[in-house]
Write a structure and sequence with these properties.
Radius of gyration: 15 Å
Order of helices and strands: HHEEEEEEEEEEEEEE
Strand content: 25-35%
Number of strands: 14
Shape: globular
Number of helices: 2
Largest sheet: 6 strands, mixed
Bound molecules: coenzyme A
Structural class: alpha/beta
Strand order of the largest sheet: 2-5-8-11-13-14
Helix content: 10-25%
Length: about 150
């Protein structure tokens, strides 16, 4: 079932023609940066309004993904000109959960956060994960498996 909270509604409205720009800027006023190019599946949830969430334009997000405040998905090598970067994007698969303050930083190619991955609070993830793994720490390491 689709969420009825304002930030989540704006996330979907962002993709509408023309009015989508209004939704995009309204989200920015709420402290959430999700470019219109970011594809997002069903039942996306910005927990607690997702204040401080920043998502790179080359990101694709699956179904039932939960993102908490302060999460960043982006390019690791921001100190380099974008033309020199080998970063190609980030994929967040279905049922992933990104805890408060977590950062997902891709350097080369596509970084994939696999289905069901849990990323701990304030983790800095620099590599792809496998299904249902739990990652935490700086840099993030696998600390367990999710029990369904
Ligand atoms: C990552 C997390 C999901 C792991 O939970 P878990 O599977 O129960 O794992 P454990 O508590 O058994 O911890 C496993 C190991 O990871 C470490 N760890 C757990 N969370 C960590 C974190 N956020 N950062 C760094 N290390 C962490 C533990 O110290 C432990 O290390 P050890 O094996 O050396 O003792 C959880 O700790 C977490 O960060 N949840 C986020 C919840 C949150 O932010 N809630 C507020 C919402 S508003």
């Amino acid at each position: 079932m689709a969420r009825r909270d304002l930030p989540s509604m704006l996330v979907y409205a962002r993709r509408w023609p023309l009015a989508g720009w209004l939704a995009y800027y309204a989200l920015k006023l709420l402290g959430v940066e999700i470019p219109r190019s970011v594809e997002i599946g069903e039942e996306f949830y910005l927990v607690h309004g997702g204040v401080g969430v920043v998502i790179h334009p080359k990101t694709k997000i699956g179904n039932k993904v939960k993102i908490y405040p302060g999460v960043t998905l982006g390019r690791a090598d921001v100190h380099k000109p974008v033309e020199e970067s080998k970063f190609e994007g980030i994929i967040i698969e279905d049922d992933a959960l990104l805890s408060p303050g977590a950062k997902v930083l891709g350097k080369a190619g596509v970084l994939k956060v696999a289905k069901g991955t849990v990323l701990g609070a304030n983790a800095v993830l620099l590599e792809s994960t496998k299904e249902n793994e739990i990652w935490a720490g700086v840099p993030a390491k696998r600390v367990g498996m999710r029990q369904e």
